[in-house]
Specification:
The protein is mainly α. The protein is built from 9 helices and no strands. Helix 1 runs antiparallel to helix 2. The radius of gyration is 18 Å and the shape is globular. The protein starts with a helix and ends with a helix.
């Protein structure tokens, strides 16, 4: 079992990084006010656990910093934070219903906005090279303090981003044949595929 799980982790980490990379590349190409570089992070946080989800986020941001722009590196902290929040909501059963997925994504987005704002302001002076900088500049011009401007500018895009991220991961887990995953029973129950373990045993009897 240990060897099987190790092999699965070795396969899932690069897959999660690739998923983050592809989604982020689409956002960068289309200049969307989103990020979408946490889809693989959230998926691995649920399937493998928060530590591996955080590792996926860290490695993704290191690669993006080396290839796209270095400003991605400090924001690895946001991805790690999102990984732990996603795992928390998953364990609490918030991936069973669509409205709960949306709510947990919105809460995660709001909290992630706060973390991202701290990094943006204290590391980059409020401007990190993302499309959200335009809105930040506009708010500063209207009289907002830089921290407030960066936070307000981050909220809409980050909340929409995390809601969409959580929804995509939820759909992946519902479509993907989770029976091949080491923690298949737990995932089926937590995403609402089966009502409970008791009912699952009754149906198989």
């Amino acid at each position: 079992m240990m060897k099987k799980n190790s092999s699965f982790i070795v396969a899932m980490i690069p897959a999660g990084i690739a998923l983050n990379w592809v989604a982020n590349s689409i956002v960068e190409m289309l200049k969307l006010p989103l990020f979408l570089n946490n889809i693989g992070t959230v998926l691995n946080a649920i399937v493998l656990g928060p530590l591996w989800g955080g590792a996926t986020a860290l490695m993704t941001n290191v690669i993006l910093a080396l290839i796209v722009r270095w400003t991605y590196l400090p924001f690895a902290a946001v991805g790690i934070f999102v990984a732990f929040l996603a795992h928390f909501f998953y364990k609490k059963g918030w991936f069973k219903k669509g409205w709960k997925v949306i709510t947990s994504g919105a809460v995660t987005g709001l909290l992630a906005s706060a973390v991202a704002t701290v990094i943006s302001v204290y590391v980059f002076g409020g401007f990190s090279g993302h499309t959200v900088d335009v809105l930040t500049a506009g708010l500063i011009a209207s009289g907002q303090q830089i921290f407030n401007a960066a936070f307000i500018a981050n909220i809409p895009g980050t909340m929409a981003d995390k809601i969409l991220t959580f929804w995509i991961v939820w759909m992946i887990l519902k479509i993907f044949p989770v029976r091949f995953l080491p923690n298949a029973k737990d995932i089926r129950e937590k995403i609402g595929v089966v009502k409970s373990k008791h009912k699952e045993r009754k149906m198989s009897a």
